[in-house]
Design goal:
- The chain is of the alpha+beta class and about 1150 residues long.
- Helix content is about 40%, strand content about 20%.
- The protein is built from 38 helices and 37 strands.
- The strands form 10 sheets. Strands 25-26-27-28-1-31-30-29 form an 8-stranded mixed beta sheet. A 5-stranded mixed beta sheet has the order 2-6-5-4-3.
- A hairpin with a 2-residue loop joins strand 26 (about 385-390) and strand 27.
- It is elongated.
């Protein structure tokens, strides 16, 4: 906390400018045939050229607002002009964001201070005017779609840039350029004159785009002298150019509230203020910017550095007059405020508003500071604010001064307001031998935290570090940044043995820690360069100040009540002395703890936050005190410090003071007045970054107050002096726990990384889309979840600074209007396949039915099906009840079909669970929940489709888990004939394939026996491999014998006998008896089967399966009786016997040659 006299009423929220992916950056060559070249080396100079802007600012359009604010930057040593949209809010929900970054690559470097933007009133576009070192004026026109879709950029390439080489710049050197509007430009040149460029009305492409008009305060001799190589007594060298003292280095254009007339107010190098009539170039006023008469010989002592570009500001709304502020950078620097009154088109009066006041700006601190920029704003008539930007090397500070015109001298000395910027980047604590976190893992999580360091910073730091080690880049080529960092840093430490001969793990850990800290310091040093302030910009419509840095942008907004008290702890506001003392006492008390006691206290706090307790409030406080044990580390000095701040027996701590502490963390009183203005994507990131900064402060304050409360509760000598006798300690304790629970969730989300697929622009090229898909951006879980679940709103357009503060404070408040259901966060994690993060979110969730269901989905995604089933059963009653309806919010985890199954009876709910388990092929759980679904669906006709679906799923699951009796029972319940027959076929095949033919034969299959017979018969007919294939003939034989169909069984055996003969199994002996072959065995079974029927019925059809049938010839159907079968059996026996006796019968066509 700062203890200086400056009151910090504002704070900055910084935002990185790194694009989310390479696909959002579009490069445009100017001219179109130019082929830019980029350095291939990665060193600090290349890093600065590519990523750190040499000039940058924000332009806010006046006539159109979608998009409205544009950030422009000069990169690559002046050869690249980068344009992007930085709108915080959108006009309405239907207005698309503009996510693209346009990089215009110029063949010739751009001149300093020669980039201006303008807003055409006639049509929605952005005009950019650039003068390069070849003194060529480029006119770029961008339509809104060119910053939204890549295809729009490609289509407009031919019309984007237009070129003109002005004749007036062939002998003059441009110094400053301003855009009066989209049709008029003013350029100050080195000889003290100006050139006015007017856009040609003619649309002819042959003629010049701009008409030139020349104005000069000097004669032609002075113009000629400025071209000579030597420097005269009235010139100053700036770069390669001689600048006349009369050359304007700062320029503002105003109408002074007069129609059809424009005035140019300039501050020149000779320390003079000149006012020009823009129409004819006539000078209407000349005077010293501090209204001091100087001797001619002293003119050289008050020459302004030509590098100064912002020395004049103009505000006002009154017709015919404006307020002008000028700044003299000579010496300590001094401001002067003027009232300029137009007496006509060629006459103005200028009056010093404070002639007796010496308006030297107050420095932010005792260090050496330089005023780098300032802006005079007037948010309303009669109100003026002076914003100043101070720099000290890479450090900067911003101040604001509300101008009190009635008491200017006093307000100038006492009313400066500070802007707080927390730029501290704390590395993680040193690793110890008992640290459960690995050194590499701890440092990687810190370095790769989204928003901590850009990819360019990481790559450059790694290249510099690698160069210092003298290693080759080939070792890390093609690897990701995390793997590359680990490879380079890991090569510096080796696991060696200690003096005792054992492996020295402590030395290895210490060496690793040292290398990581060196690399981190290098990263921090590079990152500091990104925060160098370039310019200060104020959005007059939204009354918001922006600090544009080399590779960052900061938004200045009001401090919340807690932040204002915290940042100004050394100088508390009137009436808040006791409140400040209580907050400071808690923070100082906890700051005195060792790391060990802080960790123990936080561990004890987690159980208080996330575990249900049946204890009373005082018992909970006692339990927390015992479990944390922080009192063991509290010294007498610590106790005395608290007593000094809060008085004996903590007498200043009252019920009202505790209420004031809670008021600091409550929602701002006017937050409900917000208008419905949706934030843009940039605005979402800005608000979430503000939350990440603020939540740590809120958590520290609440945590320290909780610890201090527990300490004060047990720090008394007499019982009557106990704190709980004066205030409701338990209630205050519970309220702090509620606040800490929400803050802990926000902290965890801010520390957790998540890779999210980028939303592709419909106009992106295929290559870009593919690259974006391969490298999804890594963001914090806070951005991934809160940004998608909730639609932030701004208040009214005129107070962005205050509204952004209210928005951030509301997010951190104990009674926040912005609901952050952990259950929906879990849904989002599940949608991104991060069930591990969803499980970590579980402690924050409640026990509502939908929350319990989502816990089941979490376990389900982790493949813990048993735990998931338990949660699904717990949620069944709440999600089945038709009396309660859900809000139907799941971030896409559930579709419309799923929602219709909730709150529609237990049967529908269980059918949803069945579908989940079936997708994962967890068939045992499908069986359990499908039986429950069928049980609760009942016999109502409206549930017929669902019941049929559940029966089908139950049947399939039973078959998959070999529960064939259940499958048989389920099959009988199916009413659809076609489905039942299809499932019957599946059941028969499955039982046969898994060797459960005995169970198949034993099943009754009422009303389906013939279907089973037909299925088996078809399998037998199509089965020709009776040797190695499944014995369908045997199954069908058993089936028919069991059901008394002996003739049918005989026909099966006859078919098998014929296929065995074709397969050549008739001569294969299978037993001790030579007559015992597979064919003869089947004949015996066949004869026995036919013997079981009456003699007149003892016959079967022979379907004629023979060699001819196998060859594709049609078979003949004949009737075979029992007598025929016996004869065939006897013939087979005789044939086998003849073979065994070497008796072979020759056919008529057999021919044998005898020698």
């Amino acid at each position: 906390m700062d203890t200086g006299e400056t009151q910090y009423l504002f704070k900055e929220t910084r935002l990185n400018l790194e694009p989310p992916s390479a696909a959002s950056v579009v490069s445009v060559c100017v001219p179109a045939n130019h082929k830019p070249t980029r350095a291939t080396t990665e060193d600090e100079s290349t890093f600065r050229a590519r990523n750190l802007a040499s000039a940058s600012s924000i332009y806010h359009r006046k006539h159109h607002d979608s998009p409205r604010s544009f950030l422009w930057r000069i990169l690559d040593d002046g050869t690249t002009l980068s344009i992007r949209v930085v709108d915080v809010a959108r006009r309405d929900k239907n207005t698309p964001d503009a996510p693209l970054v346009l990089n215009f690559n110029f063949a010739t470097p751009i001149l300093p201070n020669c980039v201006v933007l303008a807003d055409p009133k006639e049509h929605d576009a952005l005009c950019i005017f650039v003068i390069d070192e070849a003194r060529v004026l480029w006119t770029l026109t961008l339509r809104p779609d060119t910053l939204r879709r890549r295809t729009a950029v490609d289509a407009a390439l031919g019309d984007v840039a237009k070129r003109q080489a002005p004749t007036g710049l062939s002998t003059k050197y441009p110094h400053r350029m301003v855009a009066v509007n989209s049709n008029m430009l003013l350029v100050t040149v080195n000889d003290g004159g100006m050139i006015r460029f007017d856009r040609s009305i003619s649309d002819s492409a042959a003629g010049p785009l701009w008409r030139e008009s020349f104005f000069n305060v000097q004669g032609w001799k002075q113009n000629l002298r400025s071209l000579l190589p030597f420097q005269g007594k009235h010139t100053i060298r700036h770069g390669k150019v001689n600048m006349e003292y009369s050359a304007a280095t700062a320029l503002k254009v105003t109408s002074l509230g007069v129609e059809d007339c424009l005035y140019a107010v300039t501050v020149c190098l000779d320390h003079r203020l000149r006012i020009w009539n823009v129409g004819d170039g006539q000078i209407l006023h000349t005077g010293d910017i501090l209204d001091v008469d100087r001797e001619p010989q002293d003119v050289g002592k008050f020459v302004i550095d030509p590098a100064q570009s912002n020395l004049v500001q103009i505000v006002g709304r009154t017709r015919g007059q404006r307020i002008c502020a000028t700044y003299s950078p000579i010496g300590a620097g001094e401001f002067k405020f003027w009232k300029i009154v137009a007496k006509g088109t060629h006459s103005v009066d200028i009056v010093d508003l404070f002639p007796d006041a010496s308006l030297v700006p107050v420095l932010p601190s005792s260090d050496v500071w330089t005023l780098a920029d300032f802006v005079l704003s007037s948010p309303a008539e009669g109100i003026m604010n002076l914003w100043t930007l101070w720099k000290n090397n890479m450090t900067y500070k911003v101040q604001r001064l509300p101008l009190d015109r009635k008491n200017m001298a006093r307000s100038w000395e006492e009313s400066w307001e500070g802007v707080f910027l927390d730029t501290s980047a704390w590395p993680p604590a040193s690793s110890g031998p008992n640290d459960p976190t690995d050194v590499t893992e701890k440092w990687l999580s810190t370095i790769l935290q989204p928003g901590a360091f850009t990819k360019a910073t990481l790559n450059t730091a790694l290249a510099i570090y690698e160069h210092g080690l003298g290693t080759s880049k080939e070792n890390i080529k093609g690897r990701g940044i995390a793997e590359a960092i680990c490879t380079v840093l890991g090569s510096t430490a080796s696991l060696e043995r200690g003096p005792s001969g054992s492996i020295d793990y402590e030395q290895f850990r210490s060496s690793n820690e040292t290398q990581w800290r060196r690399f981190y310091r290098l990263l921090v040093e590079l990152d500091r360069q990104r925060g160098e302030a370039i310019s200060l910009s104020v959005d007059h419509e939204l009354d918001t100040a922006w600090v544009v840095c080399a590779d960052l942008v900061s938004v200045v907004h009001d401090c919340s009540a807690l932040e204002r008290l915290y940042y100004n702890a050394g100088t508390p506001e009137e009436g808040q002395e006791d409140l400040t003392a209580l907050i400071n006492a808690g923070l100082s008390f906890v700051d005195g703890f060792s790391d060990n006691f802080v960790q123990l206290s936080e561990a004890a706090l987690r159980s208080e936050l996330f575990e249900e307790s049946s204890r009373t409030d005082l018992e909970r406080i006692q339990y927390f005190s015992d479990k944390s044990g922080f009192w063991r580390g509290v010294t007498d000095d610590d106790c005395a410090q608290v007593v000094d701040a809060l008085g004996d027996n903590f007498k200043i701590v009252t019920e009202e003071l505790c209420g004031e502490v809670l008021d600091l963390i409550r929602t701002p009183s006017d937050s409900h007045k917000r208008a419905q203005v949706p934030l843009s994507e940039f605005g979402h990131k800005l608000a979430l970054k503000g939350v990440e900064y603020s939540v740590e402060l809120y958590w520290r304050v609440c945590f320290s107050q909780l610890i201090l409360l527990v300490h004060m509760e047990f720090e008394f000598d007499n019982e009557e002096d106990a704190l709980h006798n004066r205030i409701a300690v338990g209630q205050f304790y519970r309220r702090l726990l509620i606040a800490l629970r929400r803050l802990e969730l926000l902290r965890w989300l801010g520390r957790t990384d998540l890779s999210v697929p980028e939303i592709k622009d419909k106009g992106m090229s295929g290559a870009s889309s593919k690259r974006s898909a391969e490298e999804p951006p890594v963001v914090t879980a806070l951005e991934a979840n809160v940004g998608q679940l909730f639609d932030f709103r701004l208040v009214k357009k005129g107070s962005l600074a205050a509204n952004l503060t209210d928005l951030v404070a509301d997010m951190c408040a104990i009674d926040s209007e912005i609901d952050i259901p952990p259950t929906l966060i879990q849904c989002n994690f599940l949608r991104h396949q991060r069930a591990d993060l969803a499980l970590e979110t579980a402690p924050f969730c409640d026990y509502e039915p939908f929350s319990v269901y989502v816990q089941g989905r979490v376990f389900f995604a982790l493949q813990d099906f048993n735990a998931a089933a338990t949660q699904f059963r717990k949620a069944a009653i709440g999600l089945s009840s038709t009396k309660h309806k859900l809000s139907r919010q799941s971030v896409g985890l559930l579709n419309e079909t799923d929602w219709k199954l909730f709150n529609n009876g237990p049967g529908k709910y269980y059918s949803h669970v069945v579908a989940l388990y079936e997708q994962q092929r967890a068939y045992s759980y499908v069986v359990d929940f499908a039986r429950l679904a069928v049980q609760f669906l009942g016999k109502e006709s409206e549930n017929d489709l669902t019941r049929t679906d559940m029966l089908s799923r139950l049947f399939n699951a039973a078959v998959a888990t070999s529960q064939f009796q259940l499958a048989h029972t389920t099959l009988l319940s199916l009413q659809d004939g076609a489905m039942r027959y299809s499932n019957l076929r599946k059941l028969v095949d499955r039982m046969c394939q898994t060797g459960h033919s005995n169970e198949l034969v034993a099943l009754s299959f009422p009303a389906m026996q013939q279907d089973v017979d037909d299925i088996l018969t078809q399998r037998c007919q199509t089965s020709f491999d009776v040797l190695d294939g499944f014995p369908y003939h045997q199954v069908l034989y058993s089936w028919r014998i069991r059901h008394g169909n002996f003739r049918g069984a005989a026909s099966v055996l006859l078919d098998r006998i014929q296929k065995l003969k074709i397969a050549g199994e008739g001569d294969k002996i299978t037993g001790d008896d030579v007559l015992d072959t597979p064919v003869t065995k089947q004949y015996l079974l066949l004869i026995n089967a036919l013997s079981c029927v009456e003699a007149k019925e003892a016959w079967v059809y022979d379907e004629g399966v023979s060699e001819g049938t196998a060859a594709g010839l049609p078979a003949k159907r004949t009737v075979v009786s029992l007598a025929d079968i016996r004869k065939q059996y006897q013939d087979e026996l005789d044939r086998i016997a003849s073979i065994q006796n070497n008796q072979f019968e020759f056919a008529e066509d057999d021919v044998m040659e005898l020698s």
